[in-house]
Amino acid sequence: MRMRLVLSVVLVMLMAAPAGAQDFDPGSVPVTTAALPPFPFFKAPDGLASAVREGEHEVPYDGQYFLAGDKAVLVEGRIFHDKFNLANKARPYTALEFHRNYQDAIAELGGVKINTVQYTPDVAKAAGGRAVIEQNQYGAVAVPGYRHDSYLLRTADKEYWIDISSGAIPLHGYVVVLERKAMARSLGFLDAAAMKQALDADGRVALQVNFDVDKATLRPDAQPLVEQIAKLLEGEPGLRLSIEGHTDNTGDAAHNQELSTARARSVLGALVGLGVDPARLQSKGFGQDKPVAGNDTEEGRAKNRRVELVRL
Questions:
Q1: What is the pLDDT of residues 224-244, one digit of tens each?
Q2: Which of 3.30.457.10, 3.40.50.10790, 3.30.1330.60, 3.20.20.70 is the CATH number of 192-311?
Q3: 23 CB contacts (<8 Å, ≥6 apart)?
Q4: How would you classify the pairing of strands 71-85 and 281-285?
Q5: Closest-CA residue to 229 (of 243, 218, 215, 216)
Q6: How many CB atoms lie within 10 A of CB 251?
Q7: Residues 226, 228, 234, 237: is their CA dihedral positive or negative?
Q8: Which among 262, 249, 278 has a CA at the least distance from the CA of 209?
């Protein structure tokens, strides 16, 4: 009897779980059969003039948050963005008319609306908070009362993510079209010789080690850099290193401290896995406490997100 009761409770819990609790699967959207116009697909709506300066509509590579299912997800790639004053006197638009124009146009191209929620404090919190989202937000802000409609348009080999949003006083409309793609890396890794040169000169060298977002998991493309550190140690038998993690000031300071410590430890573990004697290594994290650049720009924050090798 007790077993039947437990099973009944489990079944009730499963039935009560919200349908949108699972991660959104882009593959669930059918591939379009429409002939697509050139990227970014859309002209400005009749009577509206862009509020984005000429030459600043396209970003070769960045991230943008989209509402997908019941979550905000970060997607990376080539971005087009635009902004319009919907309250202009010559041809005013309501938010409904602005959104409906794009809804119909996207449906004609074979795109599908993919969000089941709007931004709420809970939705933003689940993605890391409003401040995190708006570091990668070319549309309206991520707050209640600002409407976001997200769409996905799939071809046989590409994904186009579209965010149509509106809000503010006076009323503005925003368009973001992202062609999902991996970044073409434009720089190489420091090699063992360059690391040695920096250590000899300064006693330390800063490295940009690639981790999964907000995690201490080394990404596969970080492996060549780790191998160069191992090569450096192999060529310098007397060298001992402190591996020190640093973050920018985004988010909670205590979390950043833990993250930087875990990331430094991950690099140490990867080196030991390559055969480096752990007695030659130590690791520590400093979180956001030792910036080398301002945190008010993305370029500065990128410099602060680093791992340093320090000669012991």
A1: 999 999 999 999 999 999 999
A2: 3.30.1330.60
A3: 69, 71, 73
A4: unpaired
A5: 243
A6: 16
A7: negative
A8: 262
Check residue 273 and give its pLDDT. 96
Q: Partners of 190 in the beta sheet?
A: none
Under 8 Å between Cβ of 179 and 77: yes
Q: Integer distance in angstroms from the first to the last C-alpha of the chain?
A: 66
Domain map (residue ranges) of the chain: 23-180, 192-311
pLDDT digit string, tens, across residues 25-47? 999 999 999 999 999 999 999 99
Q: Which helix (H) or strand (E) holds 10?
A: helix 2-16
Residues 200-207: contacts with CB under 8 Å, at least 24 apart: 203/310, 203/311, 204/308, 204/309, 204/310, 204/311, 205/308, 205/309, 206/292, 206/303, 206/306, 206/307, 206/308, 207/306, 207/307, 207/308, 207/309
Identify which of 139, 143, 141 has the alpha carbon closest to the alpha carbon of residue 151.
139
| pTM confidence score | 0.60
CA 312, CA 37: separation in Å to the nearest integer? Answer: 59
Across 58-71, average pLDDT: 95
Both tokens of residue 284? 């520590």
Are the CB atoms for 57 and 81 separated by under 8 Å?
yes
Over residues 184-193, the pLDDT tens digits come to 655 566 899 9
CA distance readout (Å), 145 to 87, 119, 128, 297: 17, 8, 20, 28
